[in-house]
Amino acid sequence: MEFLQALAEHDFLQRALAGGLLASIGCGIVGSYVVVQRISLLAGAIAHAVLGGMGAAWYFGIDPLAGALVAAVLAALIIGWVKLRFAEREDTAISAIWALGMAIGILFIAKTPGYSVDLMGYLFGNLLMMSSSDLQLIAALDVVILVLTGLFFRQFLAVCFDPEFARVRGLKVERYYLLLLVLVALTVVMLIQVVGLILVIALMTLPAAIAGRFTVSLGAMMGLATLLGMTFTAGGLALSYAPDLPSGPVIIVLAGIAYLLAALLRRGRR
Amino acid sequence: MTAALSFRDVSFGYGDGPDVVQHVDLEIGPHELIGLIGPNGGGKSTLLKLAAGLLKPRDGEVHVFGRPPHAAREDIGYVPQFALFPREFPITVAQAVLLGRLGVGSGLRWSAADRAAATRAIHETELDALAGRSLSALSGGELQRVLIARALAAEPRLLLLDEPTSNLDQRAEEDMFALLAKLSDRMAVVLVSHDVGFVTGYVQRVACISRTLICHGTSEVTGEVINELYGHPVRAVHHAHPHEPPPDRG
Q1: Which of A183, A193, A174 minimizes the C-alpha distance to A23?
Q2: B150 and A165 in contact by Cβ < 8 A?
Q3: For residue range A37-74, what is the model confidence (pLDDT) as tens digits?
Q4: Which end of chain A is more exposed for a tag (fewer CB within 10 A), N or C?
Q5: Of the candidates B83, B102, B132, which has its C-beta nearest A169's C-beta?
Q6: Does residue B120 lie within any of the structural domains?
Q7: Higher confidence at residue B28 or residue B232?
Q8: Per the domain annotation, does B149 fall within a domain?
C-alpha cells in the first residue's frame, strides 16, 4: 500500500515502473531467443563487455549508455563472427570478450577524475534513477526489437530451430544469426538500466526459461516471458521500496524464486 | 530427360583432409527410388549433403534437375539423419512443418498456399492428429515423420533422406518404405541406409559407396559386392517384406 501511495505521488517512481515494464517487452522477446538458442553465456559476455564502452564514454565525457550501445554491438559481432568461423573456439572468445571488456572498463574508470555514483547504478541497476531520456531510449530500443522481430520472425525461428535445414532452404543463416546477436546487445543495454550489467543475464533468461516450460510455441513463450518480466520488475520495485533495498537484486531474487517454483511444479506434474 | 540428380566425377574432402568421396559418377531419374548403401564413414551422408547444397564438391559437378543445388533449392526436400534441434524447443508439429516452406513463398507471413502445402504434407505423413502437439511430446517415429513432412511441405521433386529408419521398429520401418514408394510416383527419392538387407528389398536400385562408387545396378547386391564394400563378409539377415514371399526354408 505504501508503494502504491508513493507511486501516485512521485514522478521518479512512475518513471521507474514505466522503465521496468517497457524493458520487459524487449527482454521477453529477445530473452526467449537467448533461451531456445542456449546462448545465455554469450549474452553474459556481451553484458560484461559493455563496461569497456561505458568506462571509455565516462573518460571522454560522453553519455555512458552511448558507449554501452557501441560496446555491446561490437562484442556481439566479434563473438558471433568467431562462432561462425571457428565454432570450436567459441568458449574462448566468450571468456576473452567477457574479461577484456571489464578490464578496459575498470582501467578507464580508474583514470577518470572523481568518483561517479552512477557506476554502482550501472553495475547493479537503479530503476529509481530512471530519467525521461532513459525511458525514451528504452522505448526506442523496444520499437527496433519489435519491428525486426516482426519482419524476420520466421527466419529467426528457422535459424534458432534448425540452422542446417534453414541453410538447405536457402536462408542466409549467418546474417540472421548476427542480427539476432545485435538484438541481444540492444536488450542488454536496455536492461542495464533496470538491473545493472552484472544481473542482466538473469533477467534476460529467467522469465523466458519459465515461460518455455508452459508454452508450445515461440510466440506464446515471448508473450508469457514479457508478462513475467513485467511482474518481476513491478513486484521487485514494490517490494524493495518500503525496506529501502536496491530494486535490481530484489527483481532478480523474485525471478529466481519463480524459476525454482516453476521447475518444481513441472517436476511434480511428471 | 533431365536427371533429377547427377554427380559427375565428384570428389569431396573436409578442410585439407583426404577425399571422403572420390570420382563419383551417378545419375538418378525423376521418379527413381534409390538406396545409397555402404559402411560408416563411406561417404553416404556426404553425398547427400552435396546433393542438398550443404557442401560444395572439391572437384566435379553436382546438378539437381540440370542446375547446381543452390539454384534448385525449391526442388529439394532434405531429411537429416538426426533431429538437430533440442526436443524441448517450443514449437508445434504444424509450425515445424511450415518451416519447410521457407524459400518457396515470399512475404512476412505464411500465405494460404504455404498453409495448404503444409497441411497436405501433414496429412500424407499421417500426422493430422498431432498437428497441434509440441515436438517434445512425440515418439522417435513420429518425429521422423515430422522431418519428412517438413521436407514435403516445399513440394520438392527430389527427396533426400539420411538414414530415415535408424530409430524405427520394423513395423514403422515398413510403413516408412511404403510412404517413400508412394512418393516416388511423383518425385525422385534418394535414401541413405546402412541396412543393406532391408533397403535392397524396397528400392528400385542401390548405389554402393565406400569412398568411391562400387556398384549402382539394378541387380541384387551380391556377397562379392558386399565384401568389396565393407572389406569383410556381412552377415545377411533376411527381413520379411510385405510385398515379397517368405524365404524358402526347405
Answers
A1: A193
A2: yes
A3: 999 999 999 999 999 999 999 889 898 889 999 999 99
A4: C
A5: B102
A6: no
A7: B28
A8: no
The pTM of the full predicted model, rounded to 2 decimals, is: 0.86
Range of the domain at B161: 5-83+157-230
Contact check, Cβ <8 Å, B90/A217: yes
pLDDT digits (tens, 9 = 90+) for B122-148: 999 999 999 999 998 898 888 989 999
Report which of A15, A20, A6, A12 is spatially closest to residue A235, judged by C-alpha positions: A20
Output phi, psi for B67, to 5 deg.
-125, 155
Q: Which residues of B touch A220 (CB under 8 A)?
A: 90
Element (H, E) at A224: helix A218-241
Q: What is the CATH number of the domain that holds B19?
A: 3.40.50.300
The reply to whether residue A218 touches residue B100, judged by beta carbons under 8 angstroms, is: no
Q: What is the pLDDT of residues A228-262, one digit of tens each?
A: 999 999 999 999 999 999 999 999 999 999 999 99
Complex confidence, ipTM: 0.84
Is B178 a member of any domain?
yes
Q: What is the pLDDT of residue B249?
A: 39
Q: Are strands B5-12 and B59-64 parallel, antiparallel or unpaired?
A: antiparallel
The verdict on residue B22 lying in a domain is yes
User: How many structural domains compose chain B?
Assistant: 1
B91 to A212: CB separation less than 8 angstroms, yes or no? no
Q: In CATH, what number is assigned to the domain containing residue A120? A: 1.10.3470.10
Residues 6 or more apart whose CB falls under 8 angstroms from that of A25 comprise A142, A145, A146, A226, A229
How many independent structural domains does chain A possess? Answer: 1
Residues 6+ apart with CB under 8 A from B100: A169, B77, B118, B121, B149, B150, B151, B152, B153, B154
Which chain B residues are Cβ-neighbours of A161 within 8 angstroms?
85, 89, 91, 96, 99
Using the beta-carbon criterion (under 8 Å), do A150 and B54 form an inter-chain contact?
A: no
Query: Can you say how many angstroms the Cα of residue B212 is from the centroid of all Cα atoms in its chain?
Result: 19
